[in-house]
Design a protein that fits this description.
The chain is of the alpha+beta class. The chain has three domains: 142 residues, D-tyrosyl-tRNA(Tyr) deacylase (D-tyrosyl-trna(Tyr) Deacylase, Chain: A, 3-Layer(bba) Sandwich); 245 residues, BirA Bifunctional Protein, domain 2 (2-Layer Sandwich), CATH 3.30.930.10; 112 residues, Anticodon-binding domain (Rossmann fold). It is built from 16 helices and 30 strands. The chain has a ten-stranded mixed sheet with strand order 8-7-20-19-21-22-25-18-17-13. A hairpin with a 5-residue loop joins strand 29 and strand 30. Helix 6 packs antiparallel against helix 9 and helix 9 runs parallel beside helix 10. It is globular, with a radius of gyration of 28 Å. The chain starts with a strand and ends in a 22-residue tail after the last helix.
Amino acid sequence: MRILFIHADYMEYEAREKTKEALPIPDELRRGKMEEALVCFTTAEEKDERDITGTAKAAVREIEDVAKTVKTRRVVLYPYAHLSASLAKPAPARKLFAHMAESLTDSGYEVMSPPFGYYKSFKISCKGHPLSELSREIEVAAEKKGEVSEAVKAEEKLVSHWFILEPSGKLFPLDVKQGKVTGYDFKGHENLGTFAAYEMAKSREAKEEPPHIRLMRELELVDYEPGSDPGNFRYYPKGRLIKSLLEEITTSRIVEYGGMEIESPIMYDFEHPALKSYLNRFPARQYVLQTPNKKTFLRFSACFGQFLMAHDMTLSYKQMPMRLYELTRYSFRAEQRGELSGLRRLRSFTMPDCHAFCAGIRQAKAEMLVRFDLACKLLADIGFTMPDSFEIGMRVTEDFWDKDKEHVLEIARRWSKPFLMEMWDRQFFYFVMKYELNFVDALNKAAALTTDQIDTENAKRFDITYIDPEGKRQYPLILHMAPPGAVERSIYALLEKAYLDMKAGKVPSLPTWLSPTQVRLVPVSGDQLDYCKNLMSRFDGVRVDLDDTADSLSKRIRNAEKEWVPYIAVVGKKEVESGKLNVRSRTGKEQADMTVEELTRRVHDETVGRPFKPLSLPKLVSLRPGFRG
């Protein structure tokens, strides 16, 4: 299917002559007009006949995505046979258009559908902005020849069972009846029940806009990039500051743990034997590029570079576990349109990837526990409440559970609350066990902010070996850890957490160490402006700025509150004379007189052990541009 999008002031048509494919239509459908609409000139192609429902679903996702971007709820589905030389037959084409119209209507769109099979005259007024003319080619991924991986085929045959595992080791089998998870009393663990329902449904499609998207735009942190592929974002100075701080704390903690930081390419040879075999263990969602020399793909993790590097190493059991680390800026994954969801699920992302190469299962299990504690502490230091902010999703094979149950139980004891476990009848991915720490958001969707896996395949696939105590070559087990998952997901989870706090009647905020401005000086009048400018140099290791605009005092305080500034220091004549600041705390809502040194010490106490970066915008608010108009 091919679609040409026109964002129009209006579009009107009149049906004139029939073609041989035309069916009788009532007089009211012979002409029509719609204003402020997204006009979709649509050509149904022969290949669409193979999966009419799937193609209609994919096309509607595209239409909804464009409609949201141009901010309209009106759609014209205009049959247009001139975008392709390979047309679908009339009957399936009509069915396809009917599916699309019905789906859009069910989603709350006002839809106008000019009749199929008629020569029509039309008038259209294009708005003429940068996004007013777009085109898309729709193809159902599963229908592309050779693009269904062995992992997907195997997963279709997989038999799995779901359980709740309590810290005591007691196992509760789960079932789903009439859309409700049964088999466990989730009282006191309602969030776990929500997570279980989400995971067992295995649906990742986003039908509503997550609240964090509005917040990230209002706070001028992150925004969509209309000049790029969907699922790619622009970071404004405040957002880039937050992202860089998250990158720094993650890298520093993994290096302290023993991760050797490396750098590897983002593009790899599609025909490399080991890489091709590895790709076949994943759903086909790679970005494929044709270079002047070869067919390549963009990485979706740091596995490729680290495994190729480990292949060339000379390793002894004495050097293990051996830990490699890379912060991949960027990794790429061609997620489906309906699954894209702000910073929760995107197409290019920053992934901290740490692999540990272990000499046998005993060492692998011990190493995983070290890494589990590392991940939990890192998430706590970022600003989450542990373990309350997360739910564990554990996946194991029956064989691993039978042989290494005690390892899973130890994680359950350390987690200290029940978690969800899926048990497979056999291994179908490259790992036999993995856990994920999942954040459940305001729309009851879940996203993993940490994962670790025991990989039993890739050492053999990439011919990675080490010398054991007897001088023999052995294949190591490989642990894959991403703490705290994609960096973008940490921002997503922090904003969703703030929204949930707001719904619960609390004041939304970011942790002080991540707040772009930590202290805002607000002079009562212009008489205190120079005094405030001199004060700023006394805040050592604090991101402080000054609202020097001509707005009223109440508006400047309100603006600081809208920016979620943790500490607002009002400076009037009294404060100049006393040498103290009238400080308002965002989270505590208390108001107190404090010296610069006392306020600095308070900020330092709240940010101890976290990295610091200076202010990313001009210190004077009047000098800052508005990034969103």
